[in-house]
Design a protein that fits this description.
The protein is α+β, with helices and mostly antiparallel strands. It contains five helices and eleven strands; from the N terminus they run H-H-H-H-E-H-E-E-E-E-E-E-E-E-E-E. The longest helix is centred in the N-terminal third of the chain and has 19 residues.
Length: 210
């Protein structure tokens, strides 16, 4: 099983890289993420088996993965193959009472592919998947880490102050510079996205308002 899981994890990372490579060179954040992936030791000797964990928010995965097939059938097939072996983590720093939304914690989850709870520890780098159920509002926040989202399902609404929430469709890239305030809101469908923090991964997000 470890050999098979290593191959599936490698397929997942390769599918992410192939997908990101389809974006124009000038797309903000894509080159940085691809460069940081290339710098990681993703060899079999560095592979570890995560403690598989599913959360209530994972109930949104089937719909989100199915929607993402039109964005990248290769990537979403890889996700479907391996999602039950991932360590899905609750967004503890986005607690219901802080977000002002009962049920927020039970409608969101993220899973590291590269990172402390992923298949590879990573060198000040995080790569994974983030899932957020319908009708959820992740309020204004910022963090030291530069951050990329590649939207596989949606659409969502996204905001960087002083602007208001604007709709962003699936297959789009969102790039947040270090400490750039941003927010997102899902609509009638869940959001599934590839997520990456390219450095300063040990510094937690800071909420601006609640």
């Amino acid at each position: 099983m470890p050999d098979e899981l290593f191959n599936d994890a490698s397929w997942l990372i390769a599918a992410i890289m192939r997908g990101l490579m389809t974006f124009p060179d000038e797309t903000p954040g894509v080159h940085e993420v691809l460069s940081r992936i290339a710098e990681q030791d993703l060899s079999e000797k560095m592979f570890s088996v995560p403690q598989a964990q599913r959360l209530p928010g994972c109930r949104h995965l089937p719909e989100a993965v199915a929607a993402g097939l039109v964005v990248s059938s290769d990537l979403c097939s890889a996700i479907a193959t391996i999602e039950d072996r991932l360590h899905w983590t609750r967004m503890d720093h986005y607690a219901d009472e802080v977000m002002g939304q009962p049920g927020f914690e039970d409608n969101g989850a993220y899973a590291e592919i590269v990172g402390p709870t992923g298949f590879f520890a990573g060198d000040d780098f995080g790569l994974g998947l983030v899932l957020l159920g319908p009708g959820m509002h992740c309020i204004d926040h910022h963090h030291a880490a530069p951050e990329l989202y590649w939207l596989l399902s949606g659409p969502i609404e996204y905001r960087r102050p002083p602007g208001s929430l604007e709709q962003v469709g699936t297959s789009n890239i969102l790039w947040n510079k270090p400490n750039e305030v941003h927010a997102m809101k899902t609509g009638e469908r869940p959001m599934l996205a590839v997520w990456s923090w390219t450095r300063d991964v040990d510094q937690l997000p800071v909420l601006v308002s609640s």
